[in-house]
Amino acid sequence: MAIETKTFDPAEYLDDEESRLEYLRQSFASGDPADIAEGLGTVARAIGMSRIANEAGLARPALYRSLAEEGNPSLATVAKVLSTMGLRLTVEPARPDTA
């Protein structure tokens, strides 16, 4: 009997605000634009991509493309998406001694 596998989708497990916030923290902490775009896309899917697109005033297909791992969302898109998630972008020192 063959083992049946299923593609892992982290969006299925981001079912509360705390888990979504931590997922985004890790995505942003990497500093990799692809990780950030993918993290935003995953959390948007967990919340509901249509809802995020509507509230942000963006087209859903364009938002999917923009927030894919290979996407390149503009800063305006990132700000709108975070705002609809009830979040905002902040800046902090990368190292404690650089304040």
Q: Count the strands?
A: 0
In this structure, how is the largest beta sheet organized?
none
Beta-strand percentage range:
under 5%
Radius of gyration: 15 Å
Q: Percent range for helical residues?
A: 40-55%
Overall spatial form = globular
Regions with little confidence, pLDDT below 50 for 5+ residues: none
SS class: mainly alpha
| Alpha carbon gap, first and last residue | 59 Å
Number of helices: 5
Average pLDDT confidence is 92
Order of helices and strands: HHHHH
Number of domains: 1
Characterise this structure.
With 99 residues, the chain is mainly α. The chain has one domain. The protein is built from five helices and no strands.
